[in-house]
Design a protein that fits this description.
Helices cover about 30% and strands about 30% of the residues. The protein is α+β, with helices and mostly antiparallel strands. The strands form two sheets. A four-stranded antiparallel β-sheet has the order 1-8-3-6, with no helix packed on it. The protein has a four-stranded antiparallel β-sheet with strand order 2-7-4-5, with no helix packed on it. It starts with a helix and ends with a helix. About 10% of the residues are buried.
Length: about 190
């Protein structure tokens, strides 16, 4: 990759910030808002939901509440994790959400820890367009690498042709012994 494409890709790279929260009996809801004000291109990547070491042996249900400004009052919360200390104390996810997002501990006393990343797109392009550009650059580099290799390719065979030697297999001793016994038995019968 040349310097110009590296520097332009670095300028376009999304910025990621770690975030985390704890849901428990005292704090049952948590709303994640963008940390950088005025940024519209913010994605919340939820990666882990796990129980704390002091969690009781009970079912802990974590859900996402619908936005409060939503006109549709029929929208129901969505359960995203059902954790129990002895059965399933942790869940790994790859859930992408758009803030603000409100998490709620519907059942159980916790503590339940949520963690992930807040990603901000600093370029004018969408993530898909950036990925397409990077793929095109990689393909161009691969094509130029392939062109260089075509001139150097030589068919080299490591195998030498050797004649196959025919070998007679000897009969095993056991078969020879049985054949001799039969021959002796026939001769004895002929004599009688």
């Amino acid at each position: 990759m040349n310097r110009s494409s590296t520097s332009s890709a670095a300028e376009k790279a999304p910025t990621a910030m770690l975030w985390g929260c704890e849901l428990n009996q005292e704090k049952r809801t948590w709303t994640v808002k963008p940390q950088k004000e005025g940024k519209q291109d913010c994605k919340l990547l939820l990666s882990t939901i796990c129980l704390g070491e002091k969690a009781k042996e009970e079912m802990n249900l974590v859900e996402i509440l619908p936005p409060a400004s939503q006109e549709d009052k029929k929208a129901k919360p969505i359960t995203i994790a059902s954790l129990q200390a002895s059965v399933l104390p942790m869940v790994m996810m790859g859930l992408e959400l758009s803030p603000p997002v409100t998490f709620q501990l519907r059942a159980g006393s916790g503590p339940v820890f949520l963690s992930g990343q807040e990603c901000y797109d600093t370029s004018d392009l969408s993530w898909e367009e950036e990925e397409e550009e990077l793929e095109e650059e990689e393909e161009e580099e691969d094509d130029s690498d392939d062109d260089d290799d075509d001139d150097v390719d030589v068919d080299v065979s490591l195998e030498e042709e050797t004649p196959i030697k025919q070998v007679k297999r000897l009969a095993s001793q056991k078969q020879t012994g049985v054949a001799k016994k039969k021959k002796v038995e026939k001769e004895e019968e002929a004599v009688r």
